[in-house]
Here is the input.
Amino acid sequence: MADQKINLPDCCIACTACITACPVTAATQKFRGPKLVGPAQSRLHFAENDTEASLDYCSNCKNCEIACPSGVPISTLNMLARAKYYETHSHSQRDEMMGHPEKMAKLITKLPFGAFFANTGMEIGRPMGIIKAMGMADQRPLPKYASETFLSMFKNKKQPASDKKIVFFPGCVINYNEPQIGLDFVDVMNKNGYQVLVDEDFVCCGSPLITTGYLAEAKENAKKNTSLIKKWVDKGYPVLTVCTSCSLMLKQEYQELFEDEIPHMEKNAKHIFDAAEFLEFLYEKGELNENFGEVKHKFMYHAPCHLRAQGIGLPALELLSLVPGVEVTDAGAGCCGISGNYGYKAENYDRSMKIGKTLFDIIKSSKVDAVLTDCGTCRAQIAHGSNTETMHPISILAKSYKK
Amino acid sequence: MEKATVVIIGGGATGVGILRDLAMRGVDALLLEMRDLVHGTSSRYHGLLHSGARYAVKDSDAGRECIEENMILRKIGRHCVEATEGFFVRLPEDDPAYEQEWVEACKAINLPAIQIDPAEAWHLEPNLTHRAQSVYRVPDAAIDGFRMAWQNVDSAKKYGGRVKTYTEVVKINSVNGQVISVTVRDFFTKQEYDIECEFVVNAAGPWAGKVAGCADLMVNVQPDRGTLIAFNHRLTNRVINRLHKSSDGDIFVPHGSITILGTTSAAVQSPEDTQPLTSEVEYLLRIGELTFENLRNFRILRAFCGARPLYSADPNAKGRGASRGFIVLDHEYDGLKGFVSICGGKFTTYRMMAEQLTDLVCKKLHNDKPCCTAIEPLVEDISPQVLAKARQYFPNFGVNLAASRLGEDRLKEVIDRIAENPVKSELVCECENVTMAEVEVAAEAPTSYTLGDIRRKTRMGMGTCQGAFCTFRGMGMVAQSELIKDQDTLQEMKDFLQARYKGISPVLWGSTIREVELMRGIYDGVLNLDGEIFDEKN
Amino acid sequence: MKKTDMIVIGGGVSGMISAIAAAKRGKKVTLLRYGLGAFEIGGGLIDIMAYPQDRKVCSAIKYSMDKIGEEHPYHKLGLSAVEEAIKFFLELSKEENFAYEGSTEKLHWVPTAVGTMKPTGLYTKTFNGQILKDLDTIYLVDFKGLKDYYAKLTEKNLRKIFGEDKVYKVVTVDPHMEDAVGGRDIMIMDIARWLDTAEGLAECSKQLKQLVKANAAIVFPQVLGTKPDYTVYETLKAQLQCELTETLSIPPSAAGMRLSEMLHNCARKYGVKIIENAKVIDSIIKEGVCEAVVVSGVGKEHTYYAEQFVLATGGFYGSGLEVLGVKKIKEPIFDLPITLATNMDKWENLEFFSEKKQPFAMAGIQVDHTMRPMNHNGDQVLNNVFVVGRNLSGYDFCFEKSGNGVALASAYQAAASSVLGVEQNG
Here is the structure.
């Protein structure tokens, strides 16, 4: 039954599992809920040209898909419905910006001191009400641009040569906001005997485009990325990413959204890895470099929803357990509430903080000062909601290898 | 004693058609149906409004009748007919010589059958097999049997027509060879009483023989059973016919969110023999998957069967040999004045059958008003203001379907209830988008005695979960507001579930058996509807 | 390749219990789950056995083993194994501060939303039918806008059971969920989540205090919280000075969510590694020993190696047993031999509420007393694989009211068998 890609909404038996798992459903009565908005309504789309008023509430966090025993791609159905809506309605200025972080970042980084001015502008813009007027949540800081992109820094990074190569897909957050994480990743791979290649032609995986209803553009990105990845896969190089939304999009969502429309997606997916997933593979084969130096620190780990949806467990947590001195607990608190650009939208802010409250409370009462998580927006949300430092687990591994 | 000038026995398509025609001509008519409207054949077929192409070759008169009535019903029944159009598709298995014959026959009866390139057909209907050799477009349409019946009744009511459901005729009484009354039995109270009348019309479909027996007369109706499958998905937007000599399993009809495939043919003893069999389902799938190759991947919602009323003067004629045409029998020739039977026929021509019967009855009643059933629409279009208002209160994707189910008056009633108490916009049936207000209005109707009656009026329980959730919600709502008096709520829920299960039990595999496990888990495992309970008082 | 001690496939009741029981015995356990189990459907009680043969209720299982057929999992386990499993569960629940009660000696009757009574085995004190027998005034609570519960329906049928001598009164609490209008209809889960909050609980209590008199019985929909603790129950009980009971109802079940969270917390506590969204599609078997299972994963397959495996994939609901056609069932991971209902040629009964068990419900995998799968000749099929829960053959959990009981007992036994490395012996 799992092989039936044809008509997956048909498999829904209305068991309500998705409703119990949906964090937005738990946070607001205004959202009709995954079952209704997804498979149930899709049966009735023929009846009239209508839109589901509460469709915007879906954050595409994938908890419904994790819960579904029938394999219905509920949140993907919602994203497709959203895209259909925007075929006949125009986007707001805010959506233009939020849907295109790559485009925005490219503009900014072209300017001299562009990052500095953008960051300053955003900081000033908040108390001045400009951010709010644009429809973005002004209660939280916007992600800062790094003064130099990862791709630029990578050019100057020396790596030992090796026959074993992997290709890195940095994604927008790593490239424009947190390039150091990308460098840490390179270090970790080098320490495991891999040389890291980078393809400057990669474009945004498309996740923010999808959630904001720019399906056609996302498809263009998907086509481009897929053919680039194919090139590397044909050479025998796996493609790794340290952003769990990028890996989910590349591995699975492309196929769900663009089934049969783009060739090679299925084959590529076999060679796309989350970085920790790949390192865990090495570990299981006995090929991981286990010369970890001591990192004496107490952390909490938060599993991003898009990682949990990948069905690979929490590989970063497994790797961290190999590092002497590291004390790490899994917060186990579900969704942090931000889900990509969802929590940055003004109308979603309160709800996004409500969803993350359980997590924030657990972190605060644990008294850790640093939380590890593999997703960029989760890092921002946790830092904002619980006032702790946040890091990518790969940075701990990098630190440990240096010792 | 209750009375009516004309008593019509049978609440199927023919009966409601006659009720409407008589009422519109000013005749005081009362329709008696032994269960709920369209309990019999008229709700148990594929819901195809024939273009007539199917009959063009073998029975050109029937074909001609169909295309004419098809055009009329599209006009008067805009809210129960979906103008889907149809395809006739020739597959490699079909005799190519028949195609030519068929094209000529369609021309001969003025039926527009337009050939299109199979590639275009695949573009329009992506699930259609690419083995299709030739494809023609015809004006087939889909008609909702429930809605059609209730809309005929609503129209008749405007002219004084009356209906009593759950009222079975057990005797037709006469004095000196003239009908004077009927004796009826109430299905729930079992009480019997008489209704005075001048004229009785036997429109009881496959039960016509039984009804004739109430007057000690004989009418040879041979019930012929046809089984159909409903798929949980609209796998085609058009009616799809096989272009070959009419036979089993060669029609697919879309109805709202589902698709129906039918049908089969087998003589049976009783029209009550409506338990579909897995073997019949399997037989239909084997035929159907030639037209839609991935058919078995689509979930079967349920199977169902109905008994065709095949009339034959010859009591031994059976099956497709017996005529599908109709006949009017004036029993004055059998010595009983005031009793006519109408037998056979097909759904598509119900209005015309009703007209002919009504002409006969009216002649005898010296009523010469003309028939207007082809001119006046069954229900008026819903005004745009009312539709706009509905959009404010109804759930998304729920307005059009509810509007065509309800008609303007009931739609307004439902809107008012939601406006007054917004809680009533909550959905009782989430699979088919049926609000509490609508269920309430349906339950309050004097013809609603059971959850099943509510289901037939609203589509509650007819979607994906087949009542797994709305059985409980529906019953709870009805009990909460005491909308139906003196109900044994536990038995009611069991009956409702049993009726759903009847159509699911032949197709217990795939997602369908998963749904049944859920239903059993809820109503048997958790709610213990049928288990012995300790008796506290003892 | 790194190998763990045990892999449990399936995260429902039977999967969770096997994982916890094995982990408590020192095993390193990985649990691969797809979906969330049937917690929010089956509810949070442990049904042991009530209707072993027909619709007549029996005495509790301790006194009715003779009515349980040979093919039934309870028969294979034996009463003492069932009792040990129950003891294990009761202790576990106590350890998790959410103590269940009950035993194999007595059926415990709980009210349902339709006003019937349902016999169960192990229960939380929030489900208490006894109070309806003992007390003379019964309040039934409705919540304004709640569409999944109708107190009048509950009252109508409870009245038939408990008689007209008592006083029955329906009272309504307003949860002030105005956002629901035009949004998502209010379900039992929403009210339960409302009562999870201090404000909601206080508000509900305040309203009820105006509506009920002390020393009565109060019947609630299943709303006394979604967490595995008794805070909501104890608070309302104390503040209203009444006895309380919840009712069993349609999904999603709040009590099921409590049980799920309790087991989940316990599993984490004992170091069970849980991998979500992991659909196991295949196994690697060499010479009658399972080496690994394959997860279809997102994009690519993952292989997990272990010494022993527990198949807790459930029945038709989660596709642990795939039904391809009438009498055509496949167990997709190990391709284990399927046993159809014995002495039953049909696949289904024509009645939904049949007098006898449904043949299709009885189909599944046959096991020996160690819970290892057998073929039709009675030979063990795989030495290091155990089968537990709904996918076992020989019982109809909906008819008998035995679902979680079989899950619990078979899972506990499987863990025990795995530790002892008990070899098959006919």
Notes: Residues 403-420 of chain C form the longest helix (18 residues). Chain C touches chain A at residues 1-2, 34-36, 40-41, 177, 179-180, 182-184, 186-187, 189-190, 193, 251-252, 257, 268, 273-279, 281, 295-300, 302, 317-319, 322 (CB under 8 Å). The mean pLDDT of chain C is 95.
